[in-house]
Amino acid sequence: MAKEHNVDRQLFDEVMVPCYAPMQMIPVKGKGSRVWDQDDREYVDFAGGIAVSCLGHCHPVMVNALKEQADKLWHLSNVMTNEPALRLAKLLTEHSFAEKVFFANSGAEANEAALKLARRYAADKFGPEKSEIISFKQGFHGRTFFTVTVGGQAAYSDGFGPKPGDVTHLPYNDLEALASHISDRTCAVMMEPLQGEGGIVSPTPEFIQGVRELCDKHNALLVFDEVQTGNGRTGDFYAYQGLGVTPDILSTAKSLGGGFPIGAMLTTTELAQHMKVGTHGSTYGGNPLACAVAEAVVSEVTKPEVMAGVKQREQWFRDGLAVINAKYPIFAEVRGKGLLLGAALTEEWQGRARDVLLAAGEEGLMILVAGANVVRFTPSLVIDKADIDEGMARLERAIAKIYK
């Protein structure tokens, strides 16, 4: 795997918009939970492309689906429908509360559709004054102007001029704050059923139940952003299924295509009828290539042994981190569920999550952060025990170095 002439990290600085600061190494090949860079150096992947590569790299189920569909049909406009899109939509309704599906290309687009549907439904049914959207501080819902405004991190939404209005941010897991603010003017409450970018924060049972009850009381729709938590990530196909609370609208993306870009908004027949012909659309949404891959991914992930395996792997991760932490106590707690885990740093290690990430990279391990104080792990849902063990050994070496 010789380096292609001049395709190096320096070229990034020459030709790419500088909104990312990628690592120096450039991966060129992946198999399972291992990745190789241009110099043929091998890495263990505990990042999964930020909770995307749910079956690892180049899983035969995905590769075969892609190759098969590539010889048939890549794209049609939504002037027509297509078989892979219909099969995938049927599959998603079979594995969730939803009766209707809208396909897009990303999580942000799925959320954009969810927010537009919530506003349209409220306007149609209750009138234009019912337009408030409540979301939560430290929440993340995408980078389009509407979704980034609804997201609860001002650093991402400030500095681009006037924002879409009537959006309120409240603290996550604070039911009293929500109860005292929500009103009949509220059209929707949007939330992650486990905050991802905000630091891997699980909702308390009281909070999640209370949010549903308050939405019902005020005729507000409950929108779950399951872009990161969905598709088996938490050990249930969707996180809401493990919480005993059902949303009215759900967005999914990231691991839905296992690495192929696709997003979807799921909802009920009653709500879906407010998205009449012409109210919303997407050029590539529901294209046969993406849907064929996603269908293969969902069919694989929903197998009972894969779902059970997620919970087993969560335990392996927690055990491995506990062993490391006994020698080098830098983690205060391990948060999250399934294979969406966050190791929160202790008081004296505050702000050093990126140091851990960089040290791990030097040892041949790919991990993530969720903010400055949480080291995040979102590996393949089918990662081998041997890969977990090797990754943990590399993580221990990395932490040992910075600990000293």
UniProtKB/TrEMBL annotation:
<dbReference type="InterPro" id="IPR015421">
    <property type="entry name" value="PyrdxlP-dep_Trfase_major"/>
</dbReference>
<keyword id="KW-0032">Aminotransferase</keyword>
<dbReference type="GO" id="GO:0005737">
    <property type="term" value="C:cytoplasm"/>
</dbReference>
<feature type="binding site">
    <location>
        <position position="282"/>
    </location>
    <ligand>
        <name>N(2)-acetyl-L-ornithine</name>
    </ligand>
</feature>
<keyword id="KW-0963">Cytoplasm</keyword>
<comment type="similarity">
    <text>Belongs to the class-III pyridoxal-phosphate-dependent aminotransferase family. ArgD subfamily.</text>
</comment>
<keyword id="KW-0055">Arginine biosynthesis</keyword>
<feature type="modified residue" description="N6-(pyridoxal phosphate)lysine">
    <location>
        <position position="254"/>
    </location>
</feature>
<dbReference type="GO" id="GO:0030170">
    <property type="term" value="F:pyridoxal phosphate binding"/>
</dbReference>
<dbReference type="GO" id="GO:0003992">
    <property type="term" value="F:N2-acetyl-L-ornithine:2-oxoglutarate 5-aminotransferase activity"/>
</dbReference>
<feature type="binding site">
    <location>
        <begin position="225"/>
        <end position="228"/>
    </location>
    <ligand>
        <name>pyridoxal 5'-phosphate</name>
    </ligand>
</feature>
<dbReference type="InterPro" id="IPR049704">
    <property type="entry name" value="Aminotrans_3_PPA_site"/>
</dbReference>
<dbReference type="InterPro" id="IPR015422">
    <property type="entry name" value="PyrdxlP-dep_Trfase_small"/>
</dbReference>
<dbReference type="GO" id="GO:0042802">
    <property type="term" value="F:identical protein binding"/>
</dbReference>
<comment type="subunit">
    <text>Homodimer.</text>
</comment>
<feature type="binding site">
    <location>
        <position position="140"/>
    </location>
    <ligand>
        <name>pyridoxal 5'-phosphate</name>
    </ligand>
</feature>
<dbReference type="InterPro" id="IPR004636">
    <property type="entry name" value="AcOrn/SuccOrn_fam"/>
</dbReference>
<keyword id="KW-0808">Transferase</keyword>
<protein>
    <recommendedName>
        <fullName>Acetylornithine aminotransferase</fullName>
        <ecNumber>2.6.1.11</ecNumber>
    </recommendedName>
</protein>
<dbReference type="Pfam" id="PF00202">
    <property type="entry name" value="Aminotran_3"/>
</dbReference>
<dbReference type="InterPro" id="IPR005814">
    <property type="entry name" value="Aminotrans_3"/>
</dbReference>
<keyword id="KW-0028">Amino-acid biosynthesis</keyword>
<comment type="pathway">
    <text>Amino-acid biosynthesis; L-arginine biosynthesis; N(2)-acetyl-L-ornithine from L-glutamate: step 4/4.</text>
</comment>
<feature type="binding site">
    <location>
        <position position="283"/>
    </location>
    <ligand>
        <name>pyridoxal 5'-phosphate</name>
    </ligand>
</feature>
<feature type="binding site">
    <location>
        <position position="143"/>
    </location>
    <ligand>
        <name>N(2)-acetyl-L-ornithine</name>
    </ligand>
</feature>
<dbReference type="GO" id="GO:0006526">
    <property type="term" value="P:L-arginine biosynthetic process"/>
</dbReference>
<keyword id="KW-0663">Pyridoxal phosphate</keyword>
<dbReference type="InterPro" id="IPR017652">
    <property type="entry name" value="Ac/SucOrn_transaminase_bac"/>
</dbReference>
<dbReference type="InterPro" id="IPR050103">
    <property type="entry name" value="Class-III_PLP-dep_AT"/>
</dbReference>
<feature type="binding site">
    <location>
        <begin position="107"/>
        <end position="108"/>
    </location>
    <ligand>
        <name>pyridoxal 5'-phosphate</name>
    </ligand>
</feature>
<dbReference type="InterPro" id="IPR015424">
    <property type="entry name" value="PyrdxlP-dep_Trfase"/>
</dbReference>
